[in-house]
Specification:
Strand order of the largest sheet: 3-2-1-6-10
Strand content: 25-35%
Radius of gyration: 45 Å
CATH class of the largest domain: Alpha Beta
CATH architecture of the largest domain: 2-Layer Sandwich
Distance between the termini: 64 Å
Number of strands: 20
Structural class: alpha+beta
Shape: elongated
Length: about 500
């Protein structure tokens, strides 16, 4: 029944389901929300496959994507995903523009986005989303994102080769903000927060206001390592120094822009949470809250980013107005893929329906042929019995009777119904008057009736019957009563029909 329900759901909602796919230097994770449940899978990446957010070993990266694809679906099926790429590849910038008419708003946002771009605009994919409105001067706050085209092209090409179809590409801060806003336990999204995410590739710092990203900054482990050590071998003292240095930048930016302090720090980390909490409290006088999700207690910090992609995947495409740093052609490719998916679904439905009807007709034809043969056999066996001639005679009479009944029904269906006027005149005349002519003048509502009766008294009785029935202006002059040679009387009477 579950499979049938899923198939019927595809018929009325033919678009394929979308998952959230997170790519980091240490792992690839995929997760999907489906009917209140989650489905997920993960594959580890070896060191050197992805470095500084860029694909360094395409073959091994492709192999990892194919592996997770095989865990998720059949090899030939395209898996639509919201892809979340490493934070170090994307540059985010906040800017404001005056509130203007909607017709010119997109153009104004695009022009401002190009003016603040840190890279050559022709060599980057850019996008933006509105994050808020300033109450004092009525300006609109815009978050823009920039990423170099070769980086995105490498990711898209490898994902498509592995069987994934990216619907949108975003960066971790957007996914985390979405999760915190929708499912953060004990978090008031109307307030402002600093956010710190400690991940396998570095530390991500954010500023959230009203649940939206206003600031995003990423510090990789390479920027933290001590001289002569590998990036994956970092002392806690170096880690503390990095937190102190980078947090000062974030706090300074917040205080200079909004002239106040953030409500608290939201911490996302798999380990060292007590140590980080104590260090932040003692150095910045901020309360620290570890991010936990309501309704999804089994989503650990390492799955929060991919889960944020899955939350976006559950949004209707027409309502998805978030940043997506990818070429438009890829989004158009998703639409074409969904159209083909729709066609295939209904092609299978039509073929299955026609096949079922064909099989049904074959069985019905076989059944009717078999029944006819059995009846012929029974009829032949009856003919050989002593009472056979009698039965055959009765069958012939029944056949003739049925033909006559069919003819009667045929004649009845094609007979013209009698006029109510004629029915009324026949009832009034009874067996005393034989009509020879009935003329109706519709324009004047007058009626002329000619007939034959046995004597003058019968003609007068018919006249009186018309008057009693409600007909008006009934006229039977004596000159219209003529005696016939056989003793009968011919008459002509005029009258008008009963008003409706």
């Amino acid at each position: 029944m579950a499979k049938i329900a899923l198939y019927l759901k595809k018929l009325v909602q033919p678009y394929g389901e979308i998952a959230g796919l997170e790519i980091r230097d240490s792992a690839v994770r995929i997760i999907q929300l489906r009917d209140g449940n989650i489905r997920r899978a993960a594959v580890s990446l070896e060191p050197g496959v992805i470095e500084d957010g860029k694909v360094k070993d395409r073959n091994r990266f492709l192999a990892a994507l194919k592996k997770i694809h095989s865990q998720w679906s059949s090899p030939r099926e395209k898996i639509s995903v919201i892809a979340v790429i490493p934070a170090g590849t994307v540059y985010a910038q906040l800017f404001s523009i005056p509130f203007i008419a909607v017709a010119n708003f997109n153009e104004a946002a695009r022009l401002n986005l190009e003016s603040v771009s840190p890279v050559e605009i022709t060599s980057a994919y850019i996008d933006w989303q509105q994050v808020g409105i300033q109450d004092k001067d009525g300006k609109v706050d815009i978050l823009g994102a920039f990423v170099q085209r070769p980086i995105i092209d490498d990711y898209i090409g490898t994902m498509k080769e592995a069987g994934f179809l990216p619907v949108a590409i975003e960066f971790p801060s957007l996914a985390l903000a979405r999760v915190i806003k929708e499912y953060g336990a004990g978090i008031d999204t109307a307030k402002s927060y600093l956010v710190m995410q400690v991940a396998s590739d570095g530390v991500n710092f954010m500023i959230l206001r009203n649940g939206n990203v206003y600031f995003d900054y990423f510090a990789s482990w390479k920027s933290v390592q001590s001289e002569g050590k590998n990036a994956r071998e970092i002392s806690f003292n170096d880690f503390q120094a990095m937190i102190l240095r980078e947090m000062k930048k974030v706090v300074t930016f917040y205080e200079s822009r909004w002239s106040g302090r953030a409500e608290a720090l939201l911490l996302i980390t798999e380990s060292l949470a007590p140590e980080i909490t104590e260090f932040v409290k003692s150095n910045f006088n901020l309360s620290v809250t570890e991010v936990r999700l309501r309704d999804w207690p089994d989503i650990t910090p390492s799955w929060l980013v991919s889960f944020g992609g899955a939350v976006r995947a559950a949004i209707a495409r027409a309502q998805d107005k978030f940043i997506s740093v990818m070429p438009v052609g890829t989004e158009r490719g998703y639409l074409q893929s969904e159209i083909m998916f729709f066609i295939k679904i209904w092609r299978n439905v039509i073929i299955a329906t026609l096949s079922f009807l064909t099989i049904l007709f074959i069985f019905a034809d076989g059944f009717l042929v078999s029944t006819a043969r059995q009846l012929d056999y029974q009829s032949a066996s009856i003919s050989g019995q002593p009472e056979g001639p009698v039965v055959i005679t009765l069958q012939e009479k029944a056949r003739v009777f049925n033909q006559l009944v069919d003819k009667v029904l045929f004649a009845k269906e094609r007979s013209i119904p009698q006029s109510p006027l004629f029915i009324a005149l026949n009832q009034l005349a009874g067996n005393k008057v034989a009509f020879s002519r009935i003329f109706v003048n519709n324009t004047q509502s007058s009626i002329l009736v000619s007939g034959v009766t046995k004597d003058e008294a019968a003609a007068i009785d018919f006249k009186n019957a018309l008057i009693q029935a409600g007909f008006q202006n009934v006229s039977l002059p004596l000159s219209n009563i003529i005696s016939n040679a056989d003793g009968t009387v011919s008459f002509t009477i005029t009258f008008q029909r009963i008003p409706s």
